[in-house]
Amino acid sequence: MTPYDHKMDPFEAIAQTDVQKIPDVKDFHPDRADEPKSVNDIVQLMLGDVWEWAGTFRTTEGNIGIQAYRVGVELAGLLRDVRYWIEHKTDEIAIRFHHRLVAIHPFPNGNGRHARLAADLLIERLGGERFSWGGRTLADVGELRTCYVAVLRAADNHDIAPLLEFART
């Protein structure tokens, strides 16, 4: 089955999305992103074959994420912060970027997967290695995903260390 198979559950399609179709990391420049459009472009490339709305900000409220009307402003603020963080070129830049993307929760679905890929692209752009994100796929609902959510919650409470550790295990 492929992400194009309409009989496939959307979550299966996301898990099978070929991240190799994302442009070379040299084309990803969050340090030069003047608007949230660069984030939309990644989601469109990543999930455009799965959902029609891919790359379009959500317009409804959910149980996680900020209010929908704040997404564009918060994303622009995040991208400004990233331009500042890039001067330091450490894993923490990409992990904080990831955490804030998840917290903003700009799309109806696929936010964690998008945030992990965006963090991977950012760290590669900065000359680092992609993260392992616990060493297995987070598509499976289980112990690894539970751990991921726990470290995200720790980061919500201003403790970024567990998320940094998880990203490199």
UniProtKB/TrEMBL annotation:
Designated name of the protein: Mobile mystery protein B
Active-site positions on this chain: H105
Source taxon at top rank: Bacteria
Pfam families found in the cross-reference section: Fic
NCBIfam families linked to this entry: mob_myst_B (TIGR02613)
SUPFAM superfamilies, sorted: Fic-like
PANTHER family: CELL FILAMENTATION PROTEIN, FIDO DOMAIN-CONTAINING PROTEIN DDB_G0283145
All copies of domain Fido, residue ranges: 34-169
Natural source organism: Rhizobium tibeticum
